[in-house]
Design a protein that fits this description.
single chain, mainly beta, 124 residues
Length: 124
């Protein structure tokens, strides 16, 4: 059974950068499309970016385009989210998730497995 563990969150100043990692175990990662989602206090969980099993197709929510980059290294069983130009409104718990065809629509309804999340706080 696929297990996902996020890391790399923390406190960063506005304009700063962070790289989140999602490490998979229990099943080869290259079977799965993977996505990053986030949930801010009092808000619904939303998609951030998703990537196909091979890494050849990516999908970004509009507000993240140009600032966030998703990538994967299947040999290391790891998916990354590079975040730049961070804003206070990016503050949230960030979750890694797996699901069929996430790269075609980065939606929570497609997710079949979730990680436990990592906190990202953007504040001066």
């Amino acid at each position: 059974q696929l297990q996902l563990v996020e890391s790399g969150g923390g406190l960063v100043q506005p304009g700063g950068s962070l790289r989140l990692s999602c490490a998979a175990s229990g099943s080869p990662l290259d079977y799965y499309a993977i996505g990053w989602f986030r949930q801010a206090p009092g808000k619904e969980r939303e998609g951030v970016s998703c990537i196909s099993p091979s890494g050849g197709t990516t999908n970004y929510v509009n507000t993240m385009k140009g600032r966030f980059t998703i990538s994967r290294d299947n040999a290391k069983n790891t998916v990354y989210l590079q975040m730049t130009s961070l804003k206070p409104e990016d503050t949230a718990i960030y979750y890694c998730a797996a699901g069929p065809s996430l790269e075609s629509g980065c939606a929570t309804s497609r997710v079949t497995s979730w990680g436990q999340g990592t906190q990202v706080t953007v504040s001066s």
